[in-house]
Amino acid sequence: MASLLPGARVVKAFNALYGQFIAPDPRHEAGRQVLFLAGDDAKNTVKVLTSEFGFAPVDLGTLREGGRLIQLGGPLSALHAFKQD
Amino acid sequence: MASLLPGARVVKAFNALYGQFIAPDPRHEAGRQVLFLAGDDAKNTVKVLTSEFGFAPVDLGTLREGGRLIQLGGPLSALHAFKQD
Lengths: 85, 85
Description:
The structure is a homodimer.
Chain A: E1 11-13, H1 19-22, E2 27-28, E3 31-39, H2 43-53, E4 56-59, H3 65-70, E5 81-83
Organism (chains A, B): Streptomyces malaysiensis
């Protein structure tokens, strides 16, 4: 996808969560909804923004290495979890 | 560590969890305690065993690639989360 958008700064996030876990308030009594993200750039902006939304962003590293973990069929794909702060 | 134990089948698990999250019953109302693991062999035994304990094992892949994620300072180190089943 990054190759289709030359010059864009791509951060992979949310793709590993089903909509039912994105739509409601991500702050729960048991913790915040974990949001995995990966990217080579601009990650801090996404981390700050999604933290403000109430998610618990977890930076998995580069788009290539981290992105693999949250792609369809990856080990962290569809892992819905509340982070215990 | 694996190199110190020739012939042994090494599965990396639990190292990324603080004791306070290992000691109690891993089954909570909000979900099961996520347990990341990595290894080249014998992972299924550990998955079955830890599932019986009540954890939610998540297989991160090989000892080399997955193990890096849960080593000290790795992106999934000390990520304490309840899996929503």
